[in-house]
Amino acid sequence: MKNIVTIFRKQLKETMRNKEVLIQFLMFPVLAVFMTKSIQIEGMPPNFFVQLFSTMYVGMAPLVSMEAILSEEKEKNTLRVLLMADVTPWQYLAGVGGYVFLFCMLGAGVFCLLGGYGSGEAVLFLAVLGAGILVSAGGGHRRREQQSDGRKLGGGSPNAASFFSSHALPLQCPYLQGDGLGLHRADPAHADGPGRGGGNR
Fold first, then answer.
1. What's the angle, vertex CA 50, arms to CA 175 and CA 54, rounded to 5?
2. Closest CA to 14 of 76, 105, 81
3. Cα(153)–Cα(139) distance, rounded to whole angstroms?
4. Separation CA 96–CA 102 (nearest Å)
5. Is there a contact between 21 and 96 (Cβ–Cβ < 8 Å)?
6. Contact (Cβ atoms closer than 8 angstroms) between residue 20 and residue 108
7. What is the pLDDT of residue 1?
8. Which of 58, 32, 31, 89 is nearest to 159 (CA)?
9. Proportion of the chain in helix, strand, coil states, percent, rounded to 5
C-alpha cells in the first residue's frame, strides 16, 4: 500500500509538468462549460453539451492520460528504477490508475454540477462515467503494451475511445443522430416552394 501511495504522490507532483495529461483533464470540462453558457439553439435538448463532452471525456481523457504517463516513464527510464526499488507492476499501475481515476472523476463532477442533476440522477451519472473511466484507463494501458510489443494498433478489438464514440455517444446524445442540430432538415410545410405542389400560383 505504501508503494501505491508513493506512486500516486509522484504523479500529483508531476501534474503541472505533464502538459499533455493536464490538457486531457481540463479540455472537455472547460469546453462543456463554455458551450453550455454561450450557445443556445432552439430545439436543443437540455444538457446537450454536458452529455456530448462527458462522453468524449470518458472515451479520451483516461486512455490518453494513461498512455502518456506510461510512455513518459519509459522514455525517462524511471519505470525501470521504480521496478528495481521493489515496486511491483500492479502497485505501479494501481498508483497511476488511481491518480488518473481521481482527476477524471473531478472532471465528471464538473459535468454533473453543470447538468444540474438531482441526487438520484447525479449518482447514476457519476457511476456510469466512473465505470467508463476505468474501462478507458485500462484501454490506455493496453495500447501502451501493444506499442511496447511492436504490434499494429489498427486491427484487433476496438479501444475504449472507439467504443464510446460508436456506442455510448449515440445513446447519450440521440440529438446527434440523423440531422444533428437540425440544420439540414427542411420543414415539410415549406418543402414545396412557390409554384410547386400545392402552392398558390
1. 100
2. 76
3. 12
4. 10
5. no
6. no
7. 81
8. 58
9. 70, 0, 30
81: pLDDT strictly greater than 80: no
Q: Which segments of 86-184 does DSSP mark as H helices, in order? A: 89-115, 119-148, 160-163, 169-172
DSSP state for residue 190 in the 8-state scheme: G
Residue recorded with cell 479540455 = 27
Higher-pLDDT residue of 38 and 148 is 38
pLDDT, average across residues 72-86: 75
What pTM does this model have? Answer: 0.68
Secondary structure tally for the chain: helices H, strands E: 8, 0
- Cα-atom radius of gyration of the chain, to the nearest Å? 22
Nearest to 141 by CA among 87, 105, 96, 103: 96
SS3 22: helix
What value, to the nearest 5°, has the Cα angle with vertex 96 and ends 51 and 78?
Answer: 140
Give residue for cell 469546453.
31
Contact of 57 with 161, CB cutoff 8 Å = no
Cell numbers linked to 80: 525501470
Q: What string of DSSP letters covers 58-99? A: HHHHHHHHHHHHHHHHHHTTHHHHHHHTT--HHHHHHHHHHH
Apex CA 119: angle with CA 116 and CA 122, to 5°? 60
Provide the pLDDT for residue 140: 67
